[in-house]
Write a structure and sequence with these properties.
6 helices; alpha/beta; 7-stranded mixed beta sheet; Rossmann fold; 189 residues
Length: 189
């Protein structure tokens, strides 16, 4: 498994306990150093876009990474190159530009650096279902779905106060989750 933009080893340590051949990469030295204290050399400081394809992975994941990438088509090509064909899998998630949270942030601009799901200068691009399809559907059979903030599988691990509970209920009723998650199986060689 290749985890692009990995965090500081929490996910990696759990996968290693399960016997998964886990490898994480990140460009942030602080994250990599923290991760290496937890899982050793299973996490390395590398720019994924500059990595040589020295092996293929059955699973390539990238959580909350794609929106930070300035060259999304190159990123998608590199993901394809690193994923075992056929049958390798990808998993990613991005802020949902069509979600309720993005709409609220466009209508009530409380943060001058934020427009909808995009927070500048950190986020480079906004994503919705059709843009994810454009990047990955040629090489992967995709399942793309909305994720509410309190989704038991895909949501964020936070305690929801009353306002966030109402927000999450409305978001779910409107099918406009905070994030878009997607999984794909490699179909082309």
């Amino acid at each position: 498994m290749l985890d692009i933009g990995c965090e500081s080893g929490e996910l990696g340590s759990e996968f290693l306990k399960l016997g998964v051949d886990y490898h994480g990469v990140n460009i942030d030295t602080r994250i990599v150093e923290a991760g290496q204290r937890r899982v050793g050399d299973r996490i390395n400081r590398q720019d994924f876009l500059e990595m040589e394809v020295d092996r293929k992975y059955d699973i390539v994941c990238f959580h909350q990474v794609l929106e930070h990438i300035t060259t999304p088509f190159l990123f998608a090509r590199k993901v394809r190159e690193f994923t075992t064909a056929p049958g390798g899998a990808i998993h990613g998630d991005v802020p949902n530009v069509s979600g309720l949270s993005a709409l609220v942030h466009r209508l009530v601009p409380l943060n001058r650096h934020r427009f909808g799901a995009i927070e500048l200068p950190h986020h480079q691009f906004a994503y919705e279902v059709r843009t994810i399809q454009r990047l990955f559907a040629q090489d992967f059979s995709l399942d793309i779905f909305d994720v509410r903030i309190n989704d038991p599988t895909w949501g964020q691990v936070i305690e929801l106060g009353c306002i966030l509970q109402v927000y999450s209920a409305v978001s779910g009723a409107l099918n406009t989750g905070t994030n878009l998650a997607f999984v794909g199986k490699r179909i082309s060689g």
